[in-house]
User: Fold these one by one.
Assistant:
Number 1:
Amino acid sequence: MIPLWAQIAGTAAAIASITSSSTQTTRMLKSRTAAGISPSTWILLTISSVAWFGYGVSVRSPQQIIANGSWVVLIVPLTWFMLHDRPRRTRILAEVGIALSLVIVIALGKVNENIPGWIGIPASLLVSAPQIRYSLRHGRGPGISVVAWAFLAASSYLWFTYGIGSRELPVIANSGIAAVLGTIVVVALLVRPAPIEGSNVETASDADFVSGGINDVEIPLSPRRV
């Protein structure tokens, strides 16, 4: 029997997860791009979302089914935008692949309910690392939402609380570390401003500015920068 406080934490975690995924989805649909999201994070997020949704189904947890289901929904447009430069057929095949992997993971959960969780743990733990590196190097892209990552970090702390109450080791191991790494992602996004739209300032050299390789860049008149 899961304690009431753990059930409340799980419900709050589900709400935070849904808010996170819906916020990120809205951001991408408005900006019509996934720029700012690390390609490696996208792949790991896909694996994590599918695996943990399968885990929720295998242990029959409404909170985890709803929360991770919202992320499964998110990876559909995310995959489409991440493959924007690929042929339509490739993007459709990628979506079909996600659907097939979901079926496989749920089937594995029927064999042993912990298999999907153990598949999801390494993906969940690694998902933040490439995003941290990407954000520090390139800044915030227009397709990534700081608010979404903040809610995702908050949901991890709540899932950790839920895992302790439900005594689900995969949830405890995953969410505990994911909470810390998710917080680091939020900090990285906040300390690195968004790059100037339409320019490649992040990778520009002094020669690029002199030769005119960088366009439409406003440089404030400040004695400190002369």
Number 2:
Amino acid sequence: MLIYLQLISEPEDRELFVQLYEKHRVAMFNRANRILHSKQDSEDAVHEAFLKIAEKIELISSLECHKRDKYIVTIIENKAINAYRAKRLHPTEPLFDLAEYAVVDAYEDGDFTRCILKLPHDYREVLLLKYDLGFSNKEIADALDISQALVRKRLQRARNALRRICKMEGINDIF
């Protein structure tokens, strides 16, 4: 949430944003998921929607309560529909075939590799671009045609997911 709050200068607007975030985040995810049928894509759409809400918080604060709700629903639906159209028009393939890529040799026992292979391809891509190839967030955003904010969010989610998977596999010395 700190990413969003950094975009807002006024304390009253920050407080309103926090209230809107807590009230709508689950409903926004569910709405996006009905359109996109993908957890990762829905999370990305919600993230993009909250960025838009943070940018437009002054306008939103001037609206009546019921109009705010409608405005937020419109934002998430538009973000989800745009994501659906973009994926349909430009389907993405993984940039890497991890079975052939050098990350497989990173650990001789293959435990860490198995953990990485369990990640969704969107998460694997950003991790490999960032940590193996040394790309900056801007370079990753350009390569994947997504925003830098979305790159940061995917990296955060990927690290958290990898941490959970490694813990389930009994690998605790990685992080």
Number 3:
Amino acid sequence: MDIDVHKVAMLSRIRLTDDEAAELGPQLNSILGYVDNLQQVNTDGVVETAHPHDAAMPLRSDVVSNGNRRDDLQSPAPKTESGLYVVPKVIE
């Protein structure tokens, strides 16, 4: 299983010299060989998981903990109108 390193590099938008491609070729072939070995492992009866641990995420209660503070947060602003910040026009 020889991989065309220049083609992979072009598809990946990576510029490689011939020396770099010659060095990466065997490495990529080794990685793909390892993946091929993994595909031959018998996984019958193995349940798919999204996480290696059977831990549920702790959920917090769905309550408002930080109420509407718009007036407090806008109080230092020089000018507001209808709950919005008013700023000077910068484009004519």
